Every structure is written in structure tokens, then in C-alpha cells.
Amino acid sequence: MGQCLICQNWVSEQPSLAQLLMMASIHAPVLCRSCQQRFIRIEGPTCPICGRQQTKTTVCHDCLRWQKEGSLPLVNQALYQYNGAMKQFMHQYKFLGDYRLRQAFSAEIQARIKQRAGAMIVPIPVTPKTERTRGFNQVLGLLGNLTTTAALETRHVDKAIPQSSKNRQQRLLTEQPFQLTAGADKLIRGNRIVVVDDVYTTGRTLHHAAHLLKQAGALTVTSMTLAR
Amino acid sequence: MQINDLRDLIGRQLLAADLTPELLERPEVQSRPAIKKTTSGWVCNRCGQQLTSQTRLPHQQMYCQHCIQLGRVSTLTKLYTIAENHTFRQSQTPILTWQGRLSPNQLAASNRVAANFQQTVPHLLWAVTGAGKTEMLFAGLAEAIQAGKRIGIASPRIDVILELAPRIQAAFAHSELTVLYGKSPEPYHYCQLTLCTTHQLLRFYRAFDVLVIDEVDSFPFAGNVGLHFAAEHALNASGALLYLTATPDTTLLRLAKQNRLRVTYLPLRYHGFLLPEIHRHLAFNWRKRLARGRLPQLVQRKIQQNVKHHQRFLLFLPRVTDLDPVESALNQLNLAGRFATVHAAHPNRADIVMRMRTEQLDFLVTTTILERGVTFPGIDVMVLGADDPVFSVAALVQIAGRVGRKPSRPGGQVDFFCHGMAQNVLGARRMIQQLNRRGQRMGGKAWVNA
């Protein structure tokens, strides 16, 4: 018994017989069923590069554009579609700062990352100012107590306009916002790296991060996001 | 939207994110911690509720999840305020521009309201639906405005605020008024009269000398610890608090019994006619019938009759999910009347209610959102599934009270269609009969349809 993190209604889930017999620890669901149903998992055919949900398995037009610009392909895996429910969720979690909401998807995203055994997890950082006012990094919140490597930090002291309030053109023109943290290049060299972010929108942020990590000698760089 | 004017911070308590960086730097701006530590744990200074271990942030910081929808209160921010200094523009005379007259019963209640605006003991004005509660405030409010006091009028219901605002503005035509709610299109500005939802009271701090809370027994104010705390703290130390309702809940009645609340009671409507009584009808298995695309025959006949005689009405349904089947069943009847359905989360909610008000619609199919605080002249009311537990006794009495509010048609039909016998319907009938017996003693008359 617990309250749904989003709608505050009470959730009570009957444990299954198998759960009872195996005496497995029973986790109360953190979202109620009707809230869960509003999020759409990415399943079936996706873009092989950015992991976007589509009807075919061909490279999507956004990724073709990245190719045309001569950027190396960044293979991304996303868990959910960025629909209205996810947008609202991100608003509540990031902008209102309801840190409890990290529990809604953290178990799922952690399970996915654990499938990539041996990879080094690099979270996308937030600016020091955001860290001060929001009080947390939303990506680290999703990752729970997984071991991460803080290889990246933000370059500009203050971002004039946050990425989320720019349009597509403005986003794509954004300059490299990151730099390597002190001593990070030794850790990165020769390693397989997964960069983790909350949302893949144009891919600009993740491409910048991947570029930096590859330059520093990473063996491979892939990315994972909660939504695409 | 961030505020930039010092005056907009007077008597309020806002977070750093609500103010522009320039305003935040001004020396006049005072601050106090947003969260305090007590012997029993961490407590939010804005809503007064206890924090739980669930809402811990990294680095030993805490935040409050109870009032987070109005911006997050945490140990990372403070509450910013400028003490109330009554520097608003004084109203021009004449202050009261309302020309109407009160009935002798109303006048007696109005005098008590005005007298209690000088007192710090909370006061409850318990007057039946259609008694003219708003008009009974005018004399007291006029006195308060004259005395240069700051006045707040709040309600848990946004529809109530939206209906109240033009009436208050018309009654005090030379006074400035600001209306504040979650998505209000007009920005807030500091002035003598503030109308707002009870949630917005969380953003005021020792501001009001007089605070009126209309429909005090309704959701979400009733039983909400945070909003009660907000109301107490929006009021200054010597301020007067007035509650208005037609259906006080047990909490208010208990306070009254303990002499912690003064009560003024008015069981008769201003036009002197009694409340319309509830007629019960059986609509056995109406949901099953609706699933087959048809309304109960009795309901169908009643609707057709009303449309034929141009009798406007409201049809109440218990649940939002009932609206669509009823709408499609009505569409099959090929009625000549225009109608719409509306519920709390309807995108055009305000617009549809406005169209009913301006008589562009003949009837409205709705949930409990229109149960109180709204007046459509000359309407009848039907409730399908009145025995559903979502309708409390108070809600049913309020719904019945939508009828007969105008002197030109001081009565009307109230029809409840139920699947079976239910305590809430019986309770509502009993309450109306009780009120009418008291009303009769004061000289109330029953209305007979000509």
C-alpha cells in the first residue's frame, strides 16, 4: 500500500502467488495503473541509431541529418516515448523539483544499464547554479546508487537560456557546453562508456558529450535516455 | 512569471524563483527560513505540515511535498516578504455603489457580519442556498474599506471566485480589486481588495485585516490542514475571519459548540420563499441501460418536456465517465434544445459555463463542479444517480439549492433519480425539510407553480 507518486491516489497491488511462494521481496508499485498507462514504452521497430519509436527500422531523418553534418553516429537507447505524460512528468520532477519522482522509473533504467556489464556510466551534469537551486542532478537521481563517473562538467558558469526552452534551431546551434573534469581523461581512455541523460530531444547535448569523450580516447561511446 | 515590483510583495510570502534577481537584492525585502526544525521533525513554514523522510534531497537538504504545486519550499530557499503597510490607493467615495435593498432578516445578519469584522473570534454565516450571502457582506466590507483595511475573499472553488468577482466589483465600483488563481490571465497587483482561491492564500503572510472564506465546507479546503494553516497565516494578528456556507460540516459545528466560532444563522431565502423540496424517482439499473445507449424512460420524458416548454435545467451526473454515454444517448433523442457537457478538467469549462449563463444553451450536463456558488436564473435541476456515494448530503442540498434563486421564479423542480434507497438522498431531503420548518416559523411561504 502506498500513494501513487503522480496522482496521489492509493495503490494496492495484490502480490501474485509466485511472489508469495518464492518469498521474494514485494515492492509496492510507485505509480497507479492509470498513471502507468499514460506512459508509452518504446517497443518494436525503432531508429537503429537514436532509438526513436517508428514504424520502420531505417535510420530516421534526424539521424540522417547528423550524418550529413559529418558527425559520428551515436547509438542511443531510450525507454519511453516523450509524450504529454512524460513531458508533464519531467516538469514535475525537474522544474518543480519533486525529487520523489525519481523512483518512478529508476528501477527500470538501472536494470537496463546493468545489462551493459563493464561499461562506465557517465551522467550528463547540471550547472552549479541548477545544482544549487534544484538541489539535485535529475540524471543521478534516476541512477540511484549505481557507481557513476563524473567525467563531465559544465563549461559556462551560467547558461543564459536553458536548453529546454529553446527551439530546434537554437538547440542545434548550441556550442559545446561541457568539458572534462580534472583527471577524467585517464579514467576514460580505452573504456566503453554509456552517457546517461533524461531526454533525447535533438541529440545536441549527447553528441557534444560523446564527441568530448571520444576525443579523450574512449573505446566506444553509446547513450541511454529515459525518453526520446 | 517573476514579479519585479516591490509592492507586489507586500503581505505575501514568495520563493526566490518567484522574484526577479533585481528585486531579490533590494534592502526592503525581508526573508525567513522556509522550513523549520521542531522537536517532532521538520515543518514547512508555508503550509505548516510535517516533512517526511521521502522528501530528502542530496546533501541533507529537505523539501515540502504538500504544497509543491505552488513552487517548491525547501531548505535551499527562503520565504521573501515585505510587511503589510497598507499603502494601497484609498478607495474613492461613495464606497458602496450597490443599490439593492436587504430584507429585514438579511439586514440583521448583515449587521452581525459588520460587527464581527471588528472581532478576532472567527465567525460563521450559515445561511441557506439563495439567502443572498454575498449581499449580506457588503455593509461590513464597505466599513472595512472605509477604515483602510486590507480585505481578502477566498474560496476553494474557482467557479465561485469567477462568479463573485464581477459582483464585488460592481458593488464597489470605485475600489481596486485583483483576482488571483492558478492560471489567472491577469497578473496580480497590490490593492485593497483581493479575490483568490484558498490555495493562493499559501502565498500571503499576515496580509489581511478581513478574510472571508466562501463555501468553506467544500473540497479542497474542508479537512485540508495546509489550507487552514494558510488561511490563519494570511490573516494578520488582529484580523477578522468570516466563513460562509449553506451546509456547514461537523468540524465547523463542533467549533461552534465549543464557542470557538460565532454563528449567525439564516434559514430563509431573501425572497421569502421556502427551499424547493426534493422529488425522488426510481431509475433502477440506470447505468446498465445507459451502457445500451438509452436513458431511463422517466429521465428521457422529463428532458423532452423541459426542452419543449423552454425550461432550462442542469443535469448532474455522479462521475466524469458517465458524461459521454449520457451525451450520446441525448444525441439520439434529436432534441430541439442546445446542450453541452462539462467537468472539472474540461478544456472549455469556463466558456461552456458562460454560454449557459448567457442563455446560449438550454441545458448543461455536469458533474459536481457546478453544485455550489453558481446561479443560473429560473432553472430546474435533475440528478441521475443521486444515490452515488460521490454526492454527500451537503452536495445534494447545494444542488437542490440551485433552483428558485430569483424573485421572478422563486421555486422550481428538483428531481433525483436513484438506483435504490440511499442515506445521502434521505439525509438531504430531511435537511431541506428541517430548514423549511424553521423558515416557515420566520414567515416563509411555499412556492406554487402557476
CATH architecture of the largest domain in chain B: 3-Layer(aba) Sandwich
Query: Strand sequence of the main sheet of chain A, in spatial order?
Result: 3-8-7-4
Q: Based on the structure given, which CATH architecture of the largest domain in chain A is correct?
A: 3-Layer(aba) Sandwich
What is the share of helical residues of chain A?
25-40%
- The spatial strand order of the largest sheet of chain B comes to 9-10-8-11-12-7-13
- Are there runs of chain A of 5+ residues with pLDDT below 50, and where? none
Which descriptor suits the 3D outline of chain A?
A: globular
Q: Please compute the radius of gyration of chain B using only Cα atoms.
A: 23 Å
Q: Determine the strand fraction of chain B and express it as a percent band.
A: 15-25%
Specify the number of helices of chain A: 10
CATH class annotation of the largest domain in chain A? Alpha Beta
C-alpha-based Rg of chain A, rounded: 18 Å
Number of domains of chain B: 3
Largest interface: A-B, 10 and 18 residues
- How far apart the termini of chain A lie comes to 31 Å
GO biological process, one term (chain B): DNA replication initiation
Protein name (chain B): DNA/RNA helicase
InterPro entries (chain B): Helicase/UvrB_N, Helicase_ATP-bd, Helicase_C-like, P-loop_NTPase
Keywords (chain B): ATP-binding, DNA-binding, Nucleotide-binding
Structural write-up:
Chain A is an alpha/beta fold. Chain A has ten helices and eight strands. Chain A has a four-stranded parallel beta sheet. Chain B has 450 residues and is of the alpha/beta class. Chain B has three domains: 6-81, no CATH class; 104-266, Rossmann fold, CATH 3.40.50.300; 279-442, P-loop containing nucleotide triphosphate hydrolases (Rossmann fold). Helices cover 28% and strands 20% of the residues of chain B. Chain B has a seven-stranded parallel beta sheet. A six-stranded parallel beta sheet of chain B has the order 14-19-18-15-17-16, with helices on both faces. In chain B, strands 1-6 form a two-stranded antiparallel ribbon. Chain B is globular, with a radius of gyration of 23 Å. Chain B starts with 20 loop residues before the first helix and ends in a 9-residue tail after the last helix. Chain B: Residues 302-450 form the Helicase C-terminal domain. Chain B: This is DNA/RNA helicase. Chain B: GO terms for molecular function: 3'-5' DNA helicase activity; ATP binding; DNA binding; hydrolase activity.
